[in-house]
Amino acid sequence: MKRTSGIQSPAHHARPRLGTRQSALFGALVLLAGTSASVAAADDGPGPLGVTAVTAITAQSARVGALFVATPGGGLSGQHFCTASVVHSPNRNLVVTAAHCLGSGKDLVFAPGYRDGRAPFGVWTVKRRFMPDNWSKDQDEDSDLAFAVLDYRDGKGIEDTVGGNRFATGVGTGATAVTVTGYPDSREAPISCTNKPSAHSATQQRIDCPEFTAGTSGSPWVNGDREVVGVLGGHEQGGSTADTSYSVVLGREASELYKDAASDP
């Protein structure tokens, strides 16, 4: 079951959007998060784990954005359908997401820090896409990871504008808590949740965070060292319920894919 809004494939089965009752429950979660201790830092700092709230506007959250189908002029079109985030690269023009977010063949754009219909850091065109061979050939859920190279704007890369987190492979699952940030397609602001991942299998990791519905595919899992150690996708292309999410374990295949994408001019 994909956590996209359904533009990728006619056979798409998206997670349900929040209904009225679910929205009320989500509002209660946000209130709880705002009136109690802040959401735990990714290094296991104080605060509740497993609580989802609207993401604060910070320099760190600006590195996460929404993916849209591009208009003919390269702007935003319709509804966002997936999440991506900026990762450090020599050319300073790279974002990471789930492979099933980039498979439509449509022209796409990325809006970092998107909120309430606004793209405060501009709209960036996806120039090239990098996906593992095992995903391109067989849509292997253990290879549901992808990178997108973005066009420059005014001679600058996306990383020059919002910064980027380091893409880290080989980090032990659950070594520390991580913060997951993503864009549900039923909302116009990102949500975040911090918790400690656990192993689902040798090749998949999982995290328990509520309300990560359709649209959150590609959400980065960022640890306290500002490293991306997971990307929402993988098993069931993200998960079959809104409360448990998955990521491929970032190992050798992810490392090689990053090297290929990061070396692209």
UniProtKB/TrEMBL annotation:
Family annotation (InterPro entries): Glutamyl_endopeptidase (IPR050966), Peptidase_S1_PA (IPR009003), Peptidase_S1_PA_chymotrypsin (IPR043504), TRYPSIN_HIS (IPR018114)
Superkingdom in the source lineage: Bacteria
Pfam families listed in its UniProt record: Trypsin_2
Gene3D superfamilies: Trypsin-like serine proteases
Keywords per UniProt: Signal
Name of the protein in its database record: Trypsin-like peptidase domain-containing protein
Signal peptide: 1-42
